[in-house]
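Record type: ASSEMBLY
Status: queued
Input:
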Amino acid sequence: MTAAALRIGLRSRRVLPGFGLTMGTTLTYVALVVLLPLAALLLKSAEIGPDGFLRLVTGERALAAFQVTLTAAAFATAFNAAYGLLMAWVLVRYEFAGKRILDALMDIPFALPTAVAGVALTALYAANGWFGQLFEMAGLKIVYTVTGVALAMAFTSAPFVVRTVQPVLESLQPDIEEASATLGAYPGVIFRRVIYPVIFPAHLTGCALAFARSLGEFGAVIFIAGNLPFKTEIVSLLVFIRLEEYDYAAASAIAVVLLATAFAVLLATNALQALAQRHARKG
Amino acid sequence: MKRIASLAAAFVLSVSPLAAQDKPVEILNASYDIARELFAQINPAFTATWKAKTGQTIEIKQSHGGSSRQARAILEGLQADVVTFNQVTDIDVLRDKGGYVARDWQRRFPNNASPYYSLPAFLVRKGNPKGIRDWSDLVRPDVQSVFPNPKTSGNARYTYLAAYAFALEQAQGDQARAQDFVKRLLANVPVFDTGGRAATTTFVERGIGDVLITFEAEVNGIRKEYGDKGFEIVVPSLSILAEFPVAVVDKVAGKRGTEATAKAYLDFLYSQAGQEILAENYNRVHHPAVIERHKGRFPAVRLVRVEEVFGGWDKVTAEHFAEGGILDKVFVKR
Amino acid sequence: MSDVASPPIAAHRSRAVPRLLIGLGVVLTLAFVAMPVAVIFAQALSKGLAVYRANVLAPDTLHAIYLTVVIAVVVVPVNMLFGLAAAWLITRFAFPGRKLLVTLIELPFSISPIVAGVIYLLLYGAQGLLGPFLEAHDIRIMFALPGMMLVTLFVTSPFVARELIPLMQVQGADQEEAAVTLGASGWQTFWRVTLPNIRWALLYGAVLCTARAIGEFGAVSVVSGNVRGETNTLPLHVELLYHDYNAVGAFAAATTLTLIALVTLVLKALLERRLERR
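Status: finished
Output:
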């Protein structure tokens, strides 16, 4: 493949050097670090055979784990869709004291190691924690429930929506808005009709990224989830448990499903981005 | 670029052996989850004894986790010189999959290679509000029990077996009723952690459940550690003898040249000094003088053996813990 | 003030709405994002400064910090080189399969860390694909430092490339092509033309890569073996202490990671300002 690529490279008379070097380096690295381990996974799950594979990934407990993970990730993403949009809007459109600090705070979930986030969230929302006590009074349990799982996912994926919407919102030309405002349109209508359609692709991309991250989140979730099969057990944890039980076949089968999902979300995101770019170029 | 990459790779590959060579003698003890405090006391005592005897400085590293998990880690290449587990089957796995331990490992040390033993006991909240006295109380719908995942934790498997043995006796040997009993017990568990210590955290720190079932040693340790919370110990009418087998991992120790030290380390557990520390930590021991001194700590309890009730570990593994066994039926498929 | 200009009728609302939104944003962010950070410090210091110091300076914690730094020091430069090579390739040449390559480069970003650990275990573990070979040659990768570095390499591999590719795409190749046409060699062009243009983005990617390498938990926990004072990184050490009757110690160890995270944020903000200015 390298040789073929090189030949094509040579044919199209490039001015810049370094094609062979960078192609070689990149391909070697991708092959060794990404593709080889992935091949090991696929090989392992191929050993199981299609029937066995299906049985392993559609087992009661695995299905329950998928359901918990998808549900929690959906709620986390829904929260972040709203929260992220709000924060992007506030940070781009308004000036106020402490704005820079607020902006920097948005990145905490990415900078904070997930295990640390996990213990912190658990301490905060446990029945005897600062927030947990309040929720307890309202009759709401968070730690060791799906709500807790969703909370941890929402925390670790919070920056995605803000950080994808922010730049698009910043680059938005104010003239159309001003025009519509002069024509007497209400702010709500302007937002819905004029602004949102432009930031929609970015918003969707951000949500897709947040969703993908939530599906795979492990460190933050395991502390708060409580590892209760059929109720709060997430897919990543099930993979981990299967490994601890020496059940490599089940671990790799479930891992393949997680991987395929991640890949699908990533492809969809890239397609969305391409669409958004084409849209932007047209506009 | 490629040269840099290969240099980096060479560095990566060379770091760990180098680090190992720097230190004189170092052995790694892979142990079960809740033995953390125990070996934190055993290890300095042994290194001091060893230093006095041979003049050699050694360092003992610890790795703790569910004991089945630890066995898997060793099969995957964790370089443990000795194992101090809480279940015979987890050392058997090391023997069967690649001969990591000697075939006759249980005869290499006294008492079936178990320097101490314990039993699953109950820890209940202050004043025992739910009135928990015995296993039969744990299947009541209003009682929530906490213990780790029997799939990954030897500790939890003893709990499972003790409950099963109790139910079997109550039902005069009716297997179906015993299975139903453990099924109801497992259904009352709100959280399954992978190791014994995580279960303790769940019960103590997070206030989940009415009763924690774990080894007598841990139960007492918690009561001591959290004196202010007023936990109470309940010893059920019947429990199972939990052996804590030890073995030298010959395959690893042989390669690292640590066999003699590893053996001396495990021998130390049988010495009076070692047994004293074990008993201090509420483990039941075999040394007559130590037993005599700590008599007050260990209430009399009727203990059954796996061999008597279940026909040996091989049979238990095949019937109960193997994929699709009884545990899977009552635990996962509910 | 850059309030959205609003029609006269809604004038009385124009100030109320921003205030409401800002208030909502601030309150939500404080409760949702900032509080967990506060709780870490509160718990770590709950038994006083002396206990906190003792916890942070415990030998096992110090070793965990050391190990975490060693991993980052090896992983980050490797991924910077990879990111540079990949970005140069992707943005300066057109070749079939380019889109696929971009997807492959970004793939680790969306793979669950646990799955990342599993795939390396299936490759290098004693029961894995290369297990027998590695054992025959007495090379230890899993449950030792090399394995932990490899999985960290995997999960952090896209960070630098992801920052460089969009920037180099926007900048285009004109300057470099001019330099080459004028007789500069490839390396000269790279050092004198390309690198000055992308250095802040490169640094930015490195900062993100470092943060992730230091904080990685799931993937490393699969391949570490949790040997105290040997293969315990800082995030794993936090978990270990947490299950050690030592919640305060766990939070103390967590504060060191949190401080690193906060420093990262400051660096990131500074770099962003540099990038914006360009």
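Annotation: Residues 1-13 of chain A have pLDDT under 50 and may be disordered.
Annotation: Chain A has two domains: 15-46, 50-282.
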